[in-house]
Design a protein that fits this description.
heterodimer; A: 117 residues; mainly beta; 7-stranded mixed β-sheet; 4-stranded antiparallel β-sheet; B: mainly beta; 12 strands
Amino acid sequence: GAVVSQHPSWVICKSGTSVKIECRSLDFQATTMFWYRQFPKQSLMLMATSNEGSKATYEQGVEKDKFLINHASLTLSTLTVTSAHPEDSSFYICSAASRRNSNQPQHFGDGTRLSIL
Amino acid sequence: GDSVTQMEGPVTLSEEAFLTINCTYTATGYPSLFWYVQYPGEGLQLLLKATKADDKGSNKGFEATYRKETTSFHLEKGSVQVSDSAVYFCALTRYSGAGSYQLTFGKGTKLSVIP
């Protein structure tokens, strides 16, 4: 089946550092990618939706200058957490979708655990 | 707007017990319905899906039937195993434009199966 690779799987860094997370679709063209944030013992919160070649659409309450999303190609999207602080510590999950497959709308990466000291 | 309501957990069962996790939804039109599973420290995996009323999705011994009259998609398994311990998310889709679909998730139900 379709595979989405997310990297890195775990990041620990100091407060003030910017962190980039990559999401790659390995065997299909991802026309849309989604970025989620998951707090402990909670559901996934959609942060933003990005379509290849256009600007991301952010959900209400998500700071676009804090969470920079780039979807420059049909196989790669990146999320950059700028000047990260301890409150940004969370589990971030990406997913990828293709126009051709609406029956399984999204394929998920394995997530990135971000810990800001 | 669309919403998904799942039974709250955690749910703790003995091995070989019967499992039911309730899920109801509110949506306009005719959404597709999904169950995703998340094992500790991992992302989400699609467990099963149903795309229209009365469809039954099944996988790895799990089943769920799309009930339009009760707007439900309850997850069941006849005999759970320790390896089924995970968090289960019910979800539905809505069209988000540009040919893609946005998922709306329930809050998740944590299942723990003890030997």
